[in-house]
Design brief:
The structure holds 2 protein chains of 2 kinds. By secondary structure, chain A is mainly α. Chain A has 7 helices and 4 strands; from the N terminus they run H-E-E-E-E-H-H-H-H-H-H. The chains are: A mainly alpha, B mainly alpha. Chains A and B meet through helix 6 and helix 7 of A and helix 2 and helix 3 of B.
Chain lengths: 259, 106
């Protein structure tokens, strides 16, 4: 109760949930590579994915059980998505895209469980994932197409006079992809978690701050939290999906430049 | 006589099947889960915002890097930000085109 009253007086800090705590101090030279709660949740996420797929593939029966059909659905979902955006050729990148999709999905969904940290709410994590995608696209694009890959920056049917400007814009637009890719996932997770926390805090603040019958007013933020929670679960899935589908779109660009 | 009867009963049969098919279709459409408009809109909004802001950040960043090496602070940075705005607008137009195409298909 005293904690609640204290929180009601000062107002809780909605950013506090994103703080990193070192769980095991590690230093290499001047670099701090401590094992933090973020790293811990990444390990938990990877272990959960392994467990999920292990349970799903253990039996391998013709008529799938619960876990097996879940694993099959996740496989078919990603495979269909790649086929529809990058064609059959894109299926070579299935392991990469599936790993990204599952990692982000598990990070997002695990983060919704109270007291657990959301790794994807840190921009450096999402940006690193996006950079991985862009490195793959660059390497594959140049390896597959050589200098033809640069056609990506030269749209067809542009008058020669403004071509340099357009190429410059295309280059900026290309470099901005990993940024927008990372920012999108990060902003969604960050905004959602702050919103949940704020409305949850309003319940306590209103209940402790108002007197008598007015305490009923705390029902309003409570309804908001109830409405926001399924929305957040939807966003967790949606963002993993958007990240994966854009990855396959970018890989399609690398495979077939000069749209 | 018997032949005609048979064919008419067959037709009844297919009619009944078609009616059942229509019924099933209607029931499926009624139960088709609708994506939460509000949530989808929010995601779309952040997508537009990230596409635009990323281009401005990159334009400004490239300008700042050139400035740093060419010692022309802050002129290339200003040009870069303007180019970033233009590229961001192009990103948004492209995204809007893609999205309206997606809507048209479904």
């Amino acid at each position: 109760m005293s904690v609640a009253v204290e929180a009601a007086k000062s107002g809780p800090d909605p950013i506090k949930q994103f703080e990193l705590h070192s769980m095991m101090d590690l230093h290499i030279g001047k670099y701090d590579i401590s094992f933090t709660n973020s790293s811990f949740m990444m390990v938990v996420g990877v272990l959960a994915i392994c467990l999920f797929l292990f349970l799903g593939t253990r039996k391998g029966s013709l008529i799938p059980g619960r876990f097996q059909s879940l694993a099959e659905i996740s496989y078919e979902f990603v495979a269909d998505m790649i086929k529809s955006t990058a064609g059959r050729e894109g299926l070579k990148f299935f392991p990469f895209i599936y790993a990204l999709f599952m990692f982000i999905l598990f990070a997002n969904v695990l983060g919704l469980i109270p007291f657990l940290f959301t790794t994807t709410s840190h921009i450096i994590v999402t940006f690193a994932l996006a950079l991985m995608v862009m490195t793959t696209v660059l390497v594959v694009g140049i390896w597959k197409n050589g200098f033809k890959f640069l056609k990506l920056f030269v749209p067809s049917g542009v008058p020669i006079v403004i071509l340099p400007l357009v190429v410059l814009l295309e280059i900026i637009s290309f470099i901005s992809r990993p940024f927008s890719h990372g920012i999108r996932l990060w902003a969604n997770m960050l905004a959602g978690h702050i919103m949940l926390k704020l409305f949850a805090a309003f319940i306590i603040m209103m209940f402790a701050g108002l007197a008598g019958v007015a305490k009923i007013g705390a029902v309003a933020p409570f309804i908001m939290v109830v409405a926001l929670t399924p929305l957040e679960i939807l966003v967790a899935f949606l963002q993993a999906y958007v990240f994966a589908i854009l990855t396959s779109v970018y890989i399609n660009d690398a495979l077939h430049p000069g749209h | 006589m018997s032949k005609g009867k048979k064919s008419s009963s067959n037709r009844d049969h297919t009619d009944a099947l078609e009616a059942l098919g229509d019924k099933v279709k209607a029931a499926q459409e009624a139960h088709d889960p609708q994506v939460d408009e509000e949530a989808a809109g929010w995601a779309v909004g952040i997508r537009y915002a990230s596409e635009f802001s990323a281009a401005v950040i990159v334009g400004g960043g490239l300008g700042a890097i050139v400035d740093h090496f060419a010692k022309t602070t802050p002129w290339v940075l200003l040009v870069g930000i303007v180019l970033g705005f233009i590229a961001g607008t192009r990103n948004i137009v492209r995204l809007a085109k893609e999205m309206s195409e997606e809507d048209g298909e479904s």
